[in-house]
Structure formats: C-alpha cells, structure tokens
Amino acid sequence: MRTTLLLSVAAHLLVSRADPTVDQENALLDPTAECAPYNYAPVTNALSAFPAAGTPVTGILAGDTAAQSKFDSFKANIPNIAPRGVNGVFATNATSSYPATDPDCWWTFGQCLTPKVAGLKPDIADVPEPRTLGYGFDDGPNCSHNAFYDYLTSKKQKATMFFIGTNVMFEPLQALRAAQDGHEICVHTWSHHPMTAFTNEQAFAELWYTMQSIKLVTGYTPTCWRPPQGDVDDRIRYIAQQLNLDNILWKYDAFDWKVASGQATPAEVQTNYDNLVADVGKGTFDTVGAIMLTHELDNYTMQTAIDNYPKLAAAFDHIVPVGVGYNKTQPYVEKNFTLPSFAQYIGSAAAGGGGGGNSASSSGGSTKAGSGSGSNTAAGSSPSSSGGAAGTGAAISVRLSFAGVLVSCAALLGAALVL
Ligand SMILES: [Zn+2]
C-alpha cells in the first residue's frame, strides 16, 4: 500500500512545476493553473512515513514506533464496542441491527452528542456565544481555493478548516496557505470514511497520520477533528480524545456536498442557507449560537459560501472560527500560534480588524515544513469566558445520508488522485 502512495503522490507532485513557493501558488486564480501538479520537497521526501493516499488506512505502518507506542499506551482501555463495518465501509445491517437505546452514543444513529462512557468530552455541535455562527469548511484543502480564501481575507474572516490527510499530501501549499491566513485547521481523517467502520488501530491511524501530515506541511499539530459523515460513537470518541482531539459536529447542514453528485439542486442548497438565516431572525440562536456543515469540496460549494457570506454576516452578530467561539486560544500542540479569544476577535472585527491577532507573515520563499514559521502574532491568551456545554440550543434540522457522502468523497478523492 505504501508503494501505491509513493506512485500516486509522486506522480502528482513530480509531473510538472518544480517547487513553487506558497506565494506563487497563492497568486494563481485560474482553477486549471491552481490545480496543475507541483512538487513540494518536504512531502516528496516524507512519503515513506505515510500510508497509501485515497484509501482507508490498513493500520499503523511497520516500524512506526512513535505511532505504535502512542496506540499501545491506551489501547487496553478503548471501550469494547464492535466496529460497524470493515475497512471504513458499513455493514449492510449496521443501523438495522443497532439497539434503539443507542448504548454507544452513535451520532449516525440518533445524532447523540453526549457520550455514555464516563470521562468522554461531549461533542461540539454549536457555539456558546449567542447569535454567533461557528464558521467552518470540510474536505479541504482544495487545489482551486484561492478565490475563496482571498474572499475570506478580504472580509478579515477566519474559519475552521477540516482537512483530509490525503488532500494535505496532494495540496501542501494550499494547506500551508490556510495556516498562514490564520484559519484554524482541524483533522478530517486520512481517507474520509466512516470511522465507526474501522478497527481500533485503523481509526487511530486515520487520525494519527492526518495529524502528522498537517504537522509536516504547516508545522502545527491540530487539537480538533470532525468525523466524516458525523460518524462517531464512544469507541471512536475515546480514541480521538487520547489524541487530544476535540470532536466538532453540527446541527445545520447546507447539503452543498450533494450538488456535485446530482443529489441536490443549487436552489435547495440556497434554501438551506436561507433557513439558517431565517432561524436567526426567529431567535433560535438568542441563547446559543450555531454551526452549519459547509464544504471546501469544489468550486460550487466555495462560490456558494462566498455568495451567502453577506447574508450570514447581516443575520448573525458574529461569525467566528469554532475555536474562537470556545475561547480556545491555543488550537495547536505547538504554542507559537494563538487564536484570539472571542472578545478579542469581535473587538477586532468591530474596529475593522476582523480576524484578530493572527497576522500572516508569508515570506515569499518556500516555507520549511515542520518549522512552524508560517504566521502568528500572539493575541494574548486569557480566555474571557469558558465555553458552554455543547448539545443545547437549536433543533437538528437535517442530517447526512451515507450514500451521498460516499459518492462525494469518492469524487473528491478520485479527482485528487488524477490531478
Ligand atoms: Zn467531509
């Protein structure tokens, strides 16, 4: 499987442009030019330390003593819950055979957000600040995201970006841009498959190697993640918690990911955005804010995000990265990047400064992986208030269906593989 990765990523990275800088890549606006393959030496040189791209991980790589040691340190205490499928694919009776009492707090079954195993942190599915949107995008980095990221920059808007490990390896400069722009980067697994359909070791490896890929490229190790399709239960929550990853879900879904596969129309997606805006007007978020599932998946989803930003900004009092909504001022293991507190972020926004304290200092030259030299000015570190409990507030309006997401993922990963 490692040979597969070497061939696929090497083919992607070595075919044409040699080592463009992040600034050169950021300056491109034609999607075809943005998505032309390029070489990025820190990734090319590290391929043997990563599993095959675009396919479910088979487990911890042979000889990876750091990963094995970490997994061995807690594996005996993982809740004894059986995987719901094999190699990231659900068994056909996964839901029909599951007890109605939902003993494992399986989100896919009933959108459970409060774990039943003692000691597990509750999921995050909204933000505690009233009339506030926790703003995030799944499935990046997308090779043609410059117009979208330029737009966010023009609005001094930061967001939470949930990155797929395979995509980070294919689009390292795009991942680096997200870090340098000051966005909050979270893990969205290595291969984007349902996590409850993996073994313990596979689930660990899906998270571990994505964390390593983001660290390799940006210099930062994330402390948050989002399960593909929202598929998480107490077994997976336990594994993620041992990796210091907060679990971020949602209660609203734009279903923007469905358009590429023909399962939804743009008009229907617009209605989903409009319904969120309407709920602000109805007072739905007067006590607790919102999180909606939206995507960096393709040019349509990104343009739709741009088109709707003014409406969201007019409706909500504040739009912030999820970490800012929780005053999580240090979003990475490394301490040389600081997110503003909520008060700092909105204070800065009110003063026209928008994004708070993360001034990107892209230097023009290539950024060495692992150096953590991308951005970041400390914005102070005293949270003004503690985050509220997740799981309250707006009712769940929509949820994902399995088949649709798998189609969209296959398209995403397939596109990445052939680019
Ligand atoms: Zn996703």
UniProtKB/TrEMBL annotation:
It is found in: Cell membrane. Its cofactor is Co(2+). InterPro entries: Glyco_hydro/deAcase_b/a-brl (IPR011330), NODB_dom (IPR002509), Polysacc_deacetylase_ArnD (IPR050248). It catalyses: [(1->4)-N-acetyl-beta-D-glucosaminyl](n) + n H2O = chitosan + n acetate. Residues 131-327 form the NodB homology domain. Gene3D superfamilies: Glycoside hydrolase/deacetylase. One of its GO terms (biological process) is chitin catabolic process. GO terms for cellular component: plasma membrane; side of membrane. This is chitin deacetylase. It comes from Mycena albidolilacea.
